[in-house]
UniProtKB/TrEMBL annotation, chain A:
<dbReference type="GO" id="GO:0016887">
    <property type="term" value="F:ATP hydrolysis activity"/>
</dbReference>
<dbReference type="GO" id="GO:0005524">
    <property type="term" value="F:ATP binding"/>
</dbReference>
<dbReference type="InterPro" id="IPR003439">
    <property type="entry name" value="ABC_transporter-like_ATP-bd"/>
</dbReference>
<keyword id="KW-0547">Nucleotide-binding</keyword>
<comment type="similarity">
    <text>Belongs to the ABC transporter superfamily.</text>
</comment>
<keyword id="KW-0067">ATP-binding</keyword>
<feature type="domain" description="ABC transporter">
    <location>
        <begin position="4"/>
        <end position="234"/>
    </location>
</feature>
<dbReference type="InterPro" id="IPR030660">
    <property type="entry name" value="ABC_branched_ATPase_LivF/BraG"/>
</dbReference>
<dbReference type="GO" id="GO:0015807">
    <property type="term" value="P:L-amino acid transport"/>
</dbReference>
Automatic annotation (TrEMBL), chain B:
<keyword id="KW-1133">Transmembrane helix</keyword>
<feature type="transmembrane region" description="Helical">
    <location>
        <begin position="216"/>
        <end position="239"/>
    </location>
</feature>
<keyword id="KW-0472">Membrane</keyword>
<protein>
    <submittedName>
        <fullName>High-affinity branched-chain amino acid transport system permease protein LivH</fullName>
    </submittedName>
</protein>
<keyword id="KW-0812">Transmembrane</keyword>
<feature type="transmembrane region" description="Helical">
    <location>
        <begin position="302"/>
        <end position="325"/>
    </location>
</feature>
<feature type="transmembrane region" description="Helical">
    <location>
        <begin position="168"/>
        <end position="187"/>
    </location>
</feature>
<dbReference type="GO" id="GO:0015190">
    <property type="term" value="F:L-leucine transmembrane transporter activity"/>
</dbReference>
<keyword id="KW-0997">Cell inner membrane</keyword>
Length: 235, 328
């Protein structure tokens, strides 16, 4: 059984169809990347999983359980964390409060404290800035905080929507190596990227989406060598 | 002239603080709802009025049963405050559930008009019930805490006159202060308070954190309305007579106070309320004097609102409304 599975997902914004029958799965312990250009439907795919967009047709399964009609907060509580596009840090909450919000559904204070230590382990810079307001952090720091905040819930699946967007190459490098490290410690990851080359470098498998349809999928090593992909996404 | 203004200053401050504390707590209700929904909940003034009636009705009932005579007055007050605030809290939550939530995605103007409709509904409902029960919609509760306390402010500074206040002033002020401090603590230091601020800043992302946004919005309405209802009780005790229309003007002024402090800002609302109350009492005591009798005390509202307009001309976001730097 896949930890996460999308079967024939169709999603609309008003009259515009953004997803036209997306099939995708993620297995436990994998990094799976979803790549595609602007407007391809990557974010929409993540939003259908987290419940922010309701698919008109198709089903989503988490550990075999149908979560298609679950509300966003319910899906979050069932163990899917999404780091949204553009990070979406709470600008007027402090860094610490941002992290605490990530652990909103965690009742046990000791667990929250342990998770926070773990976040500091991955992102030492966050620790120095706990009382700063989220909105005043740099783009790279905000991305790290957004990831840390998502980890606070102790997710089974971590979904990242373009974590490299707008960041300097050296920061992107760091972020990707942390994603890899997280995965090596057992985290299942669904990574949305436009930065196809770097994403495929760390992913086990990849899907290529174009105008709402999965064009191609397979092992990252295979996709990296594919001529069509090389031309369209790795140029 | 200055000397004469100073004569009455202690009394102005006392009366202004009592009125301002009432504005402040009602303003909190407006500012909390605005902060989270960007909705001017016009019905909030009516929640305050409903609280005044519920509280007075309970006091009259307790008096009728002879309980007030045997109960310490403070205990009776506490009981009335708790019952009233729970009831008005649920009324506020109910209004959100029935009238506002279905319109969450509708244009703001539609919700605003609905809120005005809810206001009229509450006014008429309270008026109807009171008339049926009492034959008259103007209600005077049993008098409580009416003993006057003299303050020898003249011994502090000889230019001051002595001031005095009813015992109820202390009640109003202490209860108001407790409510404000508790709310401030709740919002800034607890998990659900943090969730309230998070939902106000970014509803979708809050949901991604596992926060049930509707529950948080319901909580905001409950708290704002509970405080508003309790303030109605304080108002009834301080000023004695109430009618179903007290919520309109007072609501308008409390809303003004919220704007003055920076709408959406909790501490701003508290400050704005106190400031407006003091300004109003100042004008009421000194307008005749300052304008050589051209404008009498009845122009106090014009004075207070002129100040508001001045503040907003120079600081449109209100006194505490900050323009927070946000990097995207
Ligand atoms: N809220 C919305 N209302 C209407 N159309 C939308 C909305 N959000 C997305 N769309 C449309 O749906 C399609 C897919 O958008 P989506 O955001 O999923 O793309 P994406 O692959 O994430 O792109 P990007 O890389 O630019 O983030 C696009 O055509 C977009 O214009
Ligand atoms: Mg996107």
């Amino acid at each position: 059984m896949h930890i996460l599975e999308l079967r024939d997902i169709h999603a609309f914004y008003g009259g515009i169809q953004a997803l036209k029958g997306v099939n995708l799965y993620v297995d436990k312990g994998e990094i799976v990347t979803l790549i595609g250009s602007n407007g391809a439907g990557k974010s929409t795919t993540l939003k259908t999983i987290s419940g922010q967009v309701k698919p008109k047709q198709g089903n989503i399964f988490l550990n075999g359980k149908d979560i298609t009609s679950a509300l966003p907060h319910e899906t979050a509580v069932s163990g899917v964390a999404q780091v949204p596009e553009g990070r979406r840090i709470f600008p007027r909450l402090t860094v610490k409060e941002n992290l605490e919000m990530g652990a909103f559904s965690v009742k046990n204070k000791k667990v929250v404290a342990e998770r926070m230590e773990k976040v500091f382990h991955y992102f030492p810079r966050i620790k120095e800035r706990l009382s700063q307001r989220g909105g005043t952090m740099s783009g790279g720091e905000q991305q790290m905080l957004a990831m840390g905040r998502a980890l606070m819930s102790g997710p089974n699946v971590l979904m990242l929507d373009e974590p490299s967007m707008g960041l300097a190459p050296i920061i992107v490098e760091q972020i990707f190596s942390i994603i890899k490290e997280l995965n090596e410690s057992g985290m299942t990851i669904l990574l949305v990227e436009q930065n196809a080359y770097q994403a495929l470098q760390i992913a086990n498998r990849g899907y290529v989406i174009q105008t709402g349809e999965i064009l191609m999928s397979g092992q990252s090593s295979v996709l990296l060598r594919d001529d069509q992909i090389k031309e369209a996404y790795l140029a | 002239m200055l000397a004469e203004i100073l004569h009455t200053l202690p009394q102005v401050l006392i009366d202004g603080l009592a009125l301002g504390a009432i504005y402040a707590i009602v303003a909190l209700g407006y500012t909390m709802v605005y902060g989270i929904l960007e909705l001017i909940n016009f019905a909030h003034g009516e929640i305050f009025m409903t609280g005044a009636f519920i509280g007075t009705a309970i006091l009259i009932t307790l008096t009728g049963l002879g309980w007030i005579a045997v109960m310490p007055a403070l205990l009776a007050l506490l009981l009335v405050l708790v019952i009233t605030s729970v009831l008005t809290g649920f009324i506020g939550m109910g209004i959100e559930r029935i009238a506002y939530r279905p319109l969450r995605k509708a244009p703001k103007l539609i919700t605003l008009i609905t809120a005005i409709g809810v206001s009229f509904l509450l006014q008429d409902l309270v008026r109807f019930i009171t008339e049926v029960k009492r034959g008259n919609y103007i209600l005077t509760g049993p008098s409580m805490f009416t003993d006057r306390v003299e303050v020898k402010t003249s011994s502090v500074l000889s230019v001051f006159n002595d001031a005095s206040f009813k015992e109820s002033f202390i009640i109003v002020f202490v209860v108001a202060a407790i409510m404000m401090i508790t709310l401030d603590f709740f919002i800034n230091k607890t998990k659900w308070g943090t969730a309230m601020r998070a939902v106000a800043q970014d509803r979708d992302t809050s949901a991604l954190m596992g926060v049930n946004v509707n529950k948080v919005i319901g909580l905001v309405f409950f708290l704002g309305s509970a405080l508003g209802g309790a303030t109605g009780v304080l108002f009834a005790i301080q000023y004695g007579t109430i009618d179903p229309y007290i919520g309109f003007i007072l609501g308008l002024k409390a809303f003004t106070a919220a704007v003055l402090g920076g709408i959406g800002n909790i501490r701003g609302a508290m400050f704005g309320g106190i400031l407006l109350g003091v300004l109003e009492m100042f004008a009421s005591a000194n307008l005749t004097l300052m304008t050589n009798g051209v404008f009498g005390a009845e122009y106090k509202d014009v004075f207070a609102f002129a100040i508001l307009i001045l503040v907003l001309l120079f600081k449109p976001e209100g006194i505490f409304g900050k323009v927070v730097m946000e990097k995207v």
